[in-house]
């Protein structure tokens, strides 16, 4: 394979300071090797074994590359492309990363190198997950069980006509974790994959993929792509060695080594040590040698025709104005290194000294009054700017449209309130990190207390697309009209902030997924409680689909979006992706959105979301309640770890008459065999691959209510029988649910 040469070239000037230790090799081929990295075997040339570089000869027999040396990061055996600094003083490492192939006959497929235990991690900001081919869903399973994935869709586009990676033939996804040390590439396809039809997935340097690669189809001729590694210099181990200094004062030539304000990784529980030269200086700070002053007078500066004088960390411009010398000194800005801070002063002549003193005293008094006046003016201007800024945000976030809805009477003024930003800042203690209840794809939720003592949940949305503002306001209006005991109620919103804020009633007892997975053990999660929650959620969805003013599709039903109130009643939450439709519509055509494990396969293939797509997601939740298992989990009994879909495994178990091997032990102990069979058959119908063959939520609600009522009657009869043991109610066994057509296990 060939990777652009710009990732291996070392661009150093003659004025550059020493990058390696004395008597140590500074380059391998055309790649610069700065300390703490170093070329062996001399151990003094590198910090420790993790940073040792092995300089090898290229095995190529072509005359052009015969004698070229290639560096390898010896500790993890990865070919090194370059080591380059970034603005905060860190050095990032670019290495070759293998492309993982799927269904590629005759070609070896490889996974990325496992970096666990080393100081290296895959950079979250510099890399992206990319998948190339048609009808491919690629996912990256990290060593923390995090799932990152993306899907590409097309019928037969392999002629390279699509060079832009935007979902057709190619997709990309940003990383979501700072501590990624190892991962495994896996894939799914919505169609059967013929052997030999190669599909590609890999982690790649975003800059190389977007700029250097002409067309994403070119990766089919490659074995590797560049990937960027970050590294962690443990402050606890090396802080004393690198003379840690937390301030910016002192000699300009002395490098600064200090702890990073943010712990780069929770995985290793280590704090990063970063060294850098002060602004206006250059060199390798990890060598602990004096940094060299940059002579700005020999390069770019603002002196023009004036006399330039170089000073430590900056430069001065000397000019003559009306017989007086003016000196303007320029230093790099600490907050904005690309800008400069400038201070100017005049040097008076000896005859002007006494006059200067008198003028100085008078000017000082005048300046004092001027500063007082300027402070008042600044305060007034700042207040006006704040008001204007709030008005601008209010208008940009759709406030005028919402006011029209309020005045037209479409929204009940007693049901929704327009909060101001100060109310919600005070309620959440300025959105303190210790008030965070949870974070998701739509934003962050904070716990707050209003001035009247009510506890609320404040959702701080992510940046809103201007083209979607009318839809956002429309959703607020729709949610304000929902009145159902099992749907989280919206109380109001705030539109005068940079991003919209939504205020909901506070639900105290966590999410359903926490109870299913046993994270909350103090509450007994009985079979009766599971039936009650399933019936309540089904009733709420039935209301949204048919009883509301306009049908509403939730589009992200999952156990993590079902909350439990103080009486452990279910409430559906997170309507950030919900959509309302007109009564005569049957579906929505949208970009595929949802959570892996709950996503309707029919919607995944067609991009058409119907009410039956919500039914499929509810079916997964029903299976979770029956089995106590996650929607996506590691398969057991295989030598290599694989991940399976709970829905697919459940259907297969029912077809093979192994249902009761899958059901949760507490459900088996408390529920009758007939009840479990009825609920399982209902879940199976909800998971039908053909949406038209799935039941409606009204039908689902009726069947669950019948099971719940029958169970209550049976328990009541047993309690009134004064110890007489009754058998199972045969009437429940007559609820035969229609069998499903065979479900494909490809999803």
From TrEMBL:
The keyword Electron transport does not apply. It catalyses: L-threonyl-[protein] + ATP = O-phospho-L-threonyl-[protein] + ADP + H(+); L-seryl-[protein] + ATP = O-phospho-L-seryl-[protein] + ADP + H(+). CDD domains: EGF_CA (cd00054), STKc_IRAK (cd14066). The keyword Glycoprotein applies. It comes from the Eukaryota. It is a single-pass type I membrane protein. SUPFAM superfamilies: Protein kinase-like (PK-like) (SSF56112). Residues 431-708 form the Protein kinase domain. Its main location: membrane. PROSITE patterns: EGF_CA, PROTEIN_KINASE_DOM, PROTEIN_KINASE_ST. The chain crosses the membrane at residues 357-377. It holds the Pfam family WAK. Keywords: ATP-binding, Disulfide bond, Glycoprotein, Kinase, Membrane, Nucleotide-binding, Serine/threonine-protein kinase, Signal, Transferase, Transmembrane, Transmembrane helix. InterPro entries: EGF_Ca-bd_CS, Kinase-like_dom_sf, Prot_kinase_dom, Ser/Thr_kinase_AS, WAK, WAK-like, WAK_GUB. It is found in: Membrane. PANTHER family: WALL-ASSOCIATED RECEPTOR KINASE-LIKE 21, WALL-ASSOCIATED RECEPTOR KINASE-LIKE 8. This is Wall-associated receptor kinase-like 3.
């Amino acid at each position: 394979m060939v990777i652009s040469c710009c990732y291996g070239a070392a661009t150093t000037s003659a004025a550059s300071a020493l990058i390696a230790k004395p008597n140590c090799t500074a380059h391998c081929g055309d790649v610069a090797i700065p300390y703490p990295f170093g070329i062996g075997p001399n151990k003094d040339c590198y910090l420790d074994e993790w940073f040792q570089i092995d300089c090898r000869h290229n095995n190529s027999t072509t005359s052009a590359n015969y004698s070229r040396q290639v560096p390898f990061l010896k500790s993890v055996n990865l070919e090194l492309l370059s080591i380059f600094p970034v603005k905060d003083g860190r050095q990032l490492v670019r290495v070759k990363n293998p492309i993982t192939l799927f269904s590629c006959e005759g070609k070896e497929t490889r996974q990325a190198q496992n970096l666990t235990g080393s100081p290296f991690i895959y950079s979250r900001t510099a890399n992206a997950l990319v998948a190339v081919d048609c009808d491919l869903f690629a996912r990256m399973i990290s060593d923390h069980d995090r799932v990152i994935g993306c899907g590409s869709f097309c019928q037969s586009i392999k002629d390279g006509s699509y060079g832009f990676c935007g979902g057709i033939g190619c997709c990309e996804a940003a990383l979501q974790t700072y501590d990624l040390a190892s991962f495994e590439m896996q894939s799914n396809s919505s169609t059967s994959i013929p052997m030999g039809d190669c599909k590609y997935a890999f982690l790649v340097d975003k800059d190389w993929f977007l700029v250097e690669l002409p067309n994403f189809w070119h990766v089919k001729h490659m074995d590797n792509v560049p990937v960027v590694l970050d590294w962690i210099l443990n402050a606890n181990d090396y802080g004393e060695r690198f003379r840690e200094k937390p301030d910016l004062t002192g000699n300009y030539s002395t490098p600064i080594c200090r702890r990073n304000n943010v712990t780069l990784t929770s995985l290793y529980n280590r704090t990063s040590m970063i060294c850098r030269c002060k602004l206006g200086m250059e060199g390798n700070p990890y060598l602990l040698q004096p940094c060299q002053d940059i002579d700005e007078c020999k390069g770019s500066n603002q002196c023009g025709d004036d006399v330039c004088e170089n000073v430590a960390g900056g430069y001065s411009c000397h000019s003559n104005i009306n017989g007086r010398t003016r000196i303007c000194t320029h230093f790099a800005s600490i907050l904005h290194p690309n800008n400069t801070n400038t201070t100017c002063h005049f040097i008076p002549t000896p005859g002007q000294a006494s006059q200067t003193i008198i003028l100085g005293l008078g000017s000082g008094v005048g300046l004092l009054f001027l500063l007082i006046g300027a402070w008042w003016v600044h305060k007034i201007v700042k207040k006006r700017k704040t008001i204007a800024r709030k008005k601008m945000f209010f208008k940009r976030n759709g406030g005028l449209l919402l006011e029209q809805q309020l005045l037209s009477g479409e929204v009940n003024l007693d049901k929704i309130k327009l909060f101001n930003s100060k109310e919600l800042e005070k309620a959440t203690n300025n959105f303190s990190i210790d008030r965070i209840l949870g974070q998701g794809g739509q934003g962050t939720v904070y716990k707050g207390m209003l001035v009247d003592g009510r506890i609320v949940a404040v959702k701080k949305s992510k940046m809103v697309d201007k083209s979607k503002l009318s839809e956002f306001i429309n959703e607020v209006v729709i949610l304000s009209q929902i009145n159902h005991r099992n749907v989280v109620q919206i109380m109001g919103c705030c539109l005068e902030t940079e991003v919209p804020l939504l205020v909901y009633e506070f639900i105290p007892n966590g999410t359903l997924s926490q109870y299913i997975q046993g994270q909350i053990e103090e509450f007994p999660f009985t079979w009766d409680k599971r039936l009650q929650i399933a019936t309540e959620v089904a009733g709420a969805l039935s209301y949204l689909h048919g009883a509301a003013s306009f049908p509403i599709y939730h589009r992200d039903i999952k156990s993590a979006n079902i909350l439990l109130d103080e009486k452990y009643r279910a409430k559906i939450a997170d309507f950030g992706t919900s959509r309302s439709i007109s009564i005569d519509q049957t579906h929505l055509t949208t970009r595929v959105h949802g959570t892996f494990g709950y996503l309707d396969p029919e919607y995944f293939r067609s991009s058409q979301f119907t009410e039956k797509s919500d039914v499929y997601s509810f079916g997964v939740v029903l299976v979770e309640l029956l089995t106590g298992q996650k929607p996506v989990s590691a398969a057991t009994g295989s030598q290599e770890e694989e991940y399976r879909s709970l829905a697919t495994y459940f259907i297969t178990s029912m077809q093979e008459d192994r249902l009761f091997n899958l059901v949760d032990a507490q459900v088996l102990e408390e529920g009758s065999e007939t009840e479990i069979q009825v609920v399982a058959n209902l879940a199976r119908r909800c998971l039908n691959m053909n949406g038209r063959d799935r039941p409606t939520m009204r039908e689902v609600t009726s069947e669950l209510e019948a099971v719940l009522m029958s169970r209550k009657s049976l328990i009541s009869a047993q309690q009134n029988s004064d110890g007489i043991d009754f058998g199972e109610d045969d009437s429940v066994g007559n609820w035969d649910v229609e069998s499903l057509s065979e479900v494909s296990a490809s999803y």
